[in-house]
C-alpha cells in the first residue's frame, strides 16, 4: 500500500517538535528513561506515524509533544510556542485551541447528537468556529445523514469518524491520534485511517499518529521509529511491507514484548491469509 504524499510543496515548518526530549519515570531502582534524548519534528501539512516496539516510548513522546505530560528535560514546541514555558492555564488553552486529539476510546458524549459532539470543543471555548469548515469536515467523514443521531445509534467506526471530525473542528495546528483504530475491525479501521489521510492531503491539516500496526502506519507520509526511548529510524512514503520489515529488524536488535510479537504476527497473517 503506497500513499503518495504530494504535500512537499505545502510544508511550511514544524507543527510540533521536541528537542533533546528526556522523560524519566520513577527514581532509583525503579527509574525508567521512557525518552532518552529524542529530537523529532512533525512537519505541518503532513501525516506522521510513530512506531516502535511496546515500551519504546511512543505514547510518552506523543503525550509530551501534545502537552498532556511534561518532559524531565529538553523542550516541546507547538509551532513556535514552547510548552514548558506556559503555566497550567495557558497550557490548557493551547491544548484546547491549537491541538486536536483522537484516542482509541471514542470519548463521545452519549447525550449529545453527532453534530453537537463535533462542535463541542468550539462550544466549550465559546467559539463559533467556521461553519463552512465544519460543513466540509462532515462531508469528508461522511456523516451528513447521521448528524442528529446519538453515539449509541452509530457503529464503532462511525463513532470514531465523529471523534475525528471533532478533533479537526477548531482547525487545530496538529491532531494527535493514539492508536485510533485499536477498537475497530479492519474495514472500519481502514476507513478512519483513510479519512485521517484525506484530511491531511485534501484539507492541508497535520496529523501525528501513534500505532503498533504497520498497515495503519502505511497511511502516513512518513514513519518515525522509536526503540528504547530513542529515535532510531525514519521512513518516507511507507508501505506496510517495508514497515513490517523494519519492525521485524527490531527482533534482532533487542528483547521483544508479547504485544509487539503479536502485532507482527497479526500483520503477517493479514498479508498472507492461510
Ligand atoms: N506513568 C508511568 N510510570 C512509570 N513508567 C511509565 C509510565 N508510563 C510509561 N512508563 C514506562 O515508560 C516506557 C515507555 O512507555 P510508553 O507507554 O511510552 O511506550 P509505548 O511505546 O507507547 O508502549 P506500548 O506500545 O506498549 O503502548 C515503558 O517502559 C513504560 O513502562
UniProtKB/TrEMBL annotation:
UniProt keyword terms in alphabetical order: ATP-binding, Nucleotide-binding, Transport
InterPro entries xref list: AAA+_ATPase, ABC_transporter-like_ATP-bd, ABC_transporter-like_CS, ABC_transpr_LolD-like, MacB-like_ATP-bd, P-loop_NTPase
Tree of life domain: Bacteria
Region (Disordered): 248-274
Pfam families on file: ABC_tran
Record domain ABC transporter: where: 16-253
GO molecular function terms listed in the Swiss-Prot or TrEMBL record: ATP binding
Name assigned to this protein: ABC transporter ATP-binding protein
Species annotation: Streptomyces synnematoformans
Amino acid at each position: 500500500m503506497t500513499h503518495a504524499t504530494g504535500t512537499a510543496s505545502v510544508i511550511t515548518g514544524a507543527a510540533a517538535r521536541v528537542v533533546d526530549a528526556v522523560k524519566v519515570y520513577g527514581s532509583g531502582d525503579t527509574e525508567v528513561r521512557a525518552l532518552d534524548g529524542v529530537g523529532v519534528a512533525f512537519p505541518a501539512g503532513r501525516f506522521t506515524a510513530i512506531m516502535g516496539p511496546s515500551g519504546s516510548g511512543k505514547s510518552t513522546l506523543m503525550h509530551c509533544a501534545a502537552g498532556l505530560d511534561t518532559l524531565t528535560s529538553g523542550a516541546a514546541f507547538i509551532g513556535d510556542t514552547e510548552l514548558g514555558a506556559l503555566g497550567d492555564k495557558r497550557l490548557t488553552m493551547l491544548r484546547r485551541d491549537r491541538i486536536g486529539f483522537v484516542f482509541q476510546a471514542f470519548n463521545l458524549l452519549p447525550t449529545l447528537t453527532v453534530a453537537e459532539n463535533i462542535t463541542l470543543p468550539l462550544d466549550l471555548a465559546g467559539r463559533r468556529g467556521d461553519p463552512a469548515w465544519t460543513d466540509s469536515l462532515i462531508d469528508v467523514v461522511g456523516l451528513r445523514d447521521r448528524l442528529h443521531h446519538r453515539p449509541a445509534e452509530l457503529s464503532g467506526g462511525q463513532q470514531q469518524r465523529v471523534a475525528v471530525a471533532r478533533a479537526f473542528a477548531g482547525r487545530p495546528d496538529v491532531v494527535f491520534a493514539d492508536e485510533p483504530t485499536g477498537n475497530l475491525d479492519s474495514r472500519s479501521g481502514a476507513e478512519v485511517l483513510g479519512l485521517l489521510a484525506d484530511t491531511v492531503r485534501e484539507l492541508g491539516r497535520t496529523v501525528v499518529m501513534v500505532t503498533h500496526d504497520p498497515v495503519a502506519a502505511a497511511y502516513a507520509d512518513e514513519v518515525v521509529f522509536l526503540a528504547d526511548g530513542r529515535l532510531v529510524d525514519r521512513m518516507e512514503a511507507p508501505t506496510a511491507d517495508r514497515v513490517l520489515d523494519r519492525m521485524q529488524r527490531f527482533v534482532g536488535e533487542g528483547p521483544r514484548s508479547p504485544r509487539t510479537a503479536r502485532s507482527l504476527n497479526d500483520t503477517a497473517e493479514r498479508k498472507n491469509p492461510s
